[in-house]
Amino acid sequence: MGGLATTVVVLGAGGWYYAGSQDEPHVDAVCDLDTSTDAKLAMAAYGIAIVEPVAAARHKVENGSSFLVSDVKVIKAVKGPFPGTLPLTQAVEDDGAPGSYTARQPERNVLMEPGGQYVSVVLFGDTTAAPGTETFSSYTQPVRRGLDGEVSYWKQATAASPDTAMRPECHDTVTTD
Question: What Cα–Cα distance (Å) separates residue 54 from each residue in 23, 69, 85?
Fold first, then answer.
C-alpha cells in the first residue's frame, strides 16, 4: 500500500465535506447545520474553546482550497474534549499579495494572531488532535467579554439551545474513482 494521501475539505459552517484518498473511494456529504444564532451554533458544535495561538500560522493548499493552520494553546475548553495544545485550521482566501489572506466568511471569522485570545467553535474535525486528524474552526472571534465572560456566555448558549438545533444526519455519497 504505497503512501496514501488522505484529504478532508470543509467549506463554511453550512457543512459540506469531502474525505478521501488517492487509492480509495471518497465520501461527499451535505449537512445543513442551522447556525443562525449563537445558541444553535453552540448546540451544533463538537467543541468550543478559548484559544491562544502560540506561533505564526502556516499556509497550506489542498485540492485548490487555502487554509491557515495555527498551533494554539487551549486556555479553557467550554464544550467537548480538547488537549492542552493543538493545530487549529481555518479556511482562507488568498488576498492577492503573497502571504496575505482573508478569512472565509469574515462576518464569522477573524484570522488568529499569536498572543491574541479567541473563541473557537469547531463544527467539523476532531477536537482531541488525534494523529491523522484535523480540527477546523468554523467560527473564530476575539475574546470580547473577558475569559470568564466568554466561558459563561457560551455555556449559557449551549444550555439555551433548542432540541431542533441538534446536528442533522449527513447524507453521504460514496464515489469510487
Answer: 36, 11, 9
